[in-house]
Amino acid sequence: MTLAERLRAALALPAPSTLLPGDLLEGASGDAVPAAVLVAITRRPEPGVLLTVRREHMRTHAGQIAFPGGRVDAEDADLAAAALREAEEEIGLPRSAVTLWGTADPYRTITGYHVVPVLGEVDADLPLLPHEQEVADMFEAPLAFLLDPANQRRMSAEYQGVQRHYYEIAWEGRRIWGATAAMLVNLRRRLDA
After folding, report:
1. Which residue, 30, 163, 170, 171, has most beta carbons within 10 Å?
2. Does the residue 29 lie in any domain?
3. Which UniProt keywords apply (predicted)?
4. Any domain includes 30
5. Taking a C-beta distance cutoff of 8 angstroms, is the pair 157, 166 a contact?
C-alpha cells in the first residue's frame, strides 16, 4: 500500500489522542472563525503536496508557506466546498480536478481560525496560476518528506511574553512552520495510530 493510500485509509479511523489541537492564547475567546485548507496531493509514483507562499502584505500569516485555503464563506455548502473555492481562487486549481478523500483533524490557529484540512488528489503538473495579489509563489514538496517525523522539528519561541512551541519542516531552503507544519504532524500521527 502506498503512502497516499495509507493516508486516505487513515482518514476513516478515529482521531488518535496524540493530535495537536492548536493554539489559544491566554485570555483569548474560545470562538474561532471556521476555515478550510486543501491538502492537494499529486498523483505520481512519489506523491507531492501543493503549497503556497503568501504575499508579504497579507493581513494574517504574511510571507508564510501554507496550503491553499481560507475562511468559510456563507455561500460555501461545506468545508470541502470552501477549500476547493479557495484553491481555485488562490492557485487556479479547478474544483473538478480534485478527487476528494475526506477531511482531517481541525487545528486552531493562534490568529483565531478553526482550520479543517480537506485532503484530495490532483493530477501532477497541472497548469496552475497563482493569484497575483495573494500568492507570491507556489511549489510542490514530496509527501514522504513532509510526513517523515525526522523532518518535523519541534521548536520554541517567545510570543507575547509566553514561550510557545511549534513545528517546523525545512525543505530545499523553505521554512514550513506553524499551523501548516502542525497539520502535517497531525497527518503523520494519524498514520502512526
Report:
1. 171
2. no
3. Hydrolase, Magnesium, Manganese, Metal-binding
4. no
5. yes
CA-CA distance, 49 to 43, in Å (whole number)?
Answer: 10
Q: What is the CATH number of the domain that holds 152?
A: 3.90.79.10
3-state secondary structure of 87: helix
Burial class (CB in 10 A: 0-12, 13-18, 19+), 69: buried
pTM for the full predicted model: 0.92
Whether the CB-CB separation of 35 and 114 falls below 8 Å is answered with: yes
Output the tens digit of pLDDT for each of the chain's 193 residues.
Answer: 888 888 889 999 999 999 998 876 544 556 889 999 999 999 999 999 999 997 765 555 555 899 999 999 999 999 999 999 999 999 999 999 999 999 999 999 888 899 999 999 999 989 998 877 778 899 999 999 999 999 999 998 887 787 888 999 999 999 999 999 999 999 999 999 8
Residue 33 covered by a domain? no
For residues 93 and 50, give the distance between their C-alpha atoms in angstroms, rounded to a whole number: 10
**32 inside domain:** no
- End-to-end Cα spacing for the chain: 16
Whose cell is 508579504? That residue is 56
> The domain containing residue 184 runs over which residues?
3-23+39-192
Q: What 3 state SS string does 126-166 have?
A: CCCCCCCCCEEEEEEEEHHHHHCHHHCEEEEEEECCEEEEE
